[in-house]
Amino acid sequence: MNIAIVGAGKGGVSTIKCFNNIKDITISIVVDKNINAPGIELAKELGIPFSHSVDDINCENLDVIVEATGNKEFSNFLKDKFESKCSIVDSKGTWLMMTLAERDLKALEKMDNQISIINDTANIVQSQVNEIMGSIEKIHTTSEKLLYTTKVSNEYIKESDNIIQSVNKISQQTKILGINASIEAARAGEHGKGFGVVANEVQSLSKYTEDFAAEIKGILLKLSEEIKKIDKEVNGLDSFSQVQVNASDKVSSAVDDLVEACDENCNH
């Protein structure tokens, strides 16, 4: 539908704003004798044709003339001039439309304000979600490094255990050697006393080595248990991080849907 708006005062401004937002209505021209009227200025901003004379109204491609001056005499003048060519909405009808337009405009302004607030909030939430995602990614990377470290530590413990077993074998052999040396010293009698002292020292060394190896093994066992605990906690942390990632993805998706919905409302 093509319409012409005559009168570019306050009522004309409201009428322009109202009809300009309706998809199936085209404002063909805005007319006011005051070329500096606010409605004319608005028409310039919106790219709507304008004029200071009603003679520029072309009824051939026009469906309705909306009289927004509120002047009864001028309304009668428009009827006399154009009523035979197209429909005319007089000042009363225009007043009703202006009232509805102003109400709708206030509702639209309120909605735009609310959508703007929602958009701002959504942007803040999105920013926070991005920060959380970055933090979670760092946690995940740290967890992977810790898991690798615990794996390497366990390998070292296994190697240390092999070394301790070798030390125990050497200790056992030294112990046997010491016993044999004591036996030979006893057989040698008086001449074997010095050798007997050495044999005793060898046995003492064997016992000390055996005890020391056992102590190290005990420490390594405790260390292994602690590493298992760390490994368990890291796995738990990794699972928790994944839960956070999934939750953040859902929040991010919801925010995107909210922004998209707001944009659609703004465009309509």
UniProtKB/TrEMBL annotation:
The UniProt entry's coiled-coil ranges are: none
Similarity-based family: Belongs to the methyl-accepting chemotaxis (MCP) protein family.
PROSITE patterns of this UniProt entry? Answer: CHEMOTAXIS_TRANSDUC_2
**GO MF terms on file?**
transmembrane signaling receptor activity
What is the name of the protein in this document? Methyl-accepting chemotaxis protein (MCP) signalling domain-containing protein
Query: What positions does the domain Methyl-accepting transducer occupy?
Result: 102-268
Say if the entry is tagged with keyword Protein biosynthesis: no
Per the UniProt entry, what is one GO biological process? Answer: chemotaxis
GO CC annotation, single: plasma membrane
Alphabetically list the UniProt keywords. Answer: Chemotaxis, Transducer
